[in-house]
Structures are given as C-alpha cells and as structure tokens.
Design goal:
There is one protein chain. 64% of the residues lie in helices and 0% in strands. With 160 residues, it is an all-alpha fold. It folds into two domains: 57 residues, no CATH class; 101 residues, no CATH class. Helix 5 crosses helix 7 and helix 6 packs across helix 7. It starts with a helix and ends with a helix.
Length: 160
C-alpha cells in the first residue's frame, strides 16, 4: 500500500510540498487535486499557505463527502457514463444538499462531480416525465373505457 493510500485509509489530511519542479498531471490523482506547496526559492509564505490552511480548516465531513462523490464520478466517467451507475432520487437529494452546504473555505466541487449530479437530475426528470406520461395515458384509457361502458349500458337499457 502506497503512502497516499495509507493517508486515505487512515482518514488523514495531506499537505504535499514539492522539492523539485513536477508536472502535476503526472502525480497520482489524489495528489494532483491538492494544492501543492512549491519548492524552495518559489515558496511565498503569504501566498502559498493560504489555500492549504483553508482546506485544513474546512469541515472534515463535507470534504469526506466530496471525496466520495469524486470517486463515484470517476468510476462513472471511466465506464463511459452509463445510466446504470446513476444513483437514485434519494442520492440526488443528498448530493444537492451536500453541494448547497459547501463551507465558505472549501474548494469548489470538481467539475466531474457536478456533471454526475446533473446527469442524475436529468435522468430523474426523464423518469418523472415517463411516469407522468404513462399515468396520463392510462387515465385517458380508463376514461375512454368508462365512456364506452356507459354508452353500451345506456343503449342496452333503452333497447331492453
């Protein structure tokens, strides 16, 4: 198990410091998404400590949820955005409540997470429209059958 995995497993926070220039895209995902303090000579205490301090002061439970949503979004994207991996209406309510409860100092939710939430919302809207349309079609069918039955009974009473 790597050091980054141990940090995650033990539910700790990580503040990486670069000791040499590194392309953030070549870092493991968990490190690339964290503000990395630059190497000596480029480090400015006034500027470079602000973001990590804000993250460390952020609501820990909110950040844990952010990581969970990021993991779900990563899996969803890696598998080609299948609708089977979209979550239930309850999960949509949870995701939107989590997003709305974002602490002031927290980093913005990742774009991929917002894409996942939007896809869940669109799927729920489509399902709701199908349900309402189906219910309406059934209601119209029942009314038509009731009208037909009434007409037949009326004629039978008049003829009989």
């Amino acid at each position: 198990m790597g050091a980054v995995d141990q940090v995650k497993t033990r539910n700790k926070r990580l503040v990486p410091v670069m000791v040499d220039l590194v392309n953030p895209a070549k870092l493991p995902r968990q490190l690339g998404e964290i503000h990395i303090l630059p190497p000596d000579g480029l480090f400015d205490l006034g500027c470079d400590l602000v973001k990590p301090v804000e993250v460390l002061e952020t609501d820990h439970d909110w950040l844990k949820q952010a990581t969970r949503w990021q993991d779900r979004a990563t899996e969803w994207l890696a598998k080609g955005r299948p609708s089977a991996l979209l979550l239930s209406r309850g999960a949509l309510v949870d995701a939107e409540a989590w997003k709305d409860a974002q602490p002031v100092k927290a980093p913005a939710p990742a774009l991929m997470v917002m894409d996942l939430v939007l896809a869940i919302r669109q799927t729920m809207t489509r399902r709701q429209r199908v349900f309402v349309g189906g219910s309406l079609a059934i209601s119209i069918g029942v009314l038509a059958l009731a009208g037909f039955a009434y007409t037949c009974c009326s004629k039978a009473c008049l003829c009989g």
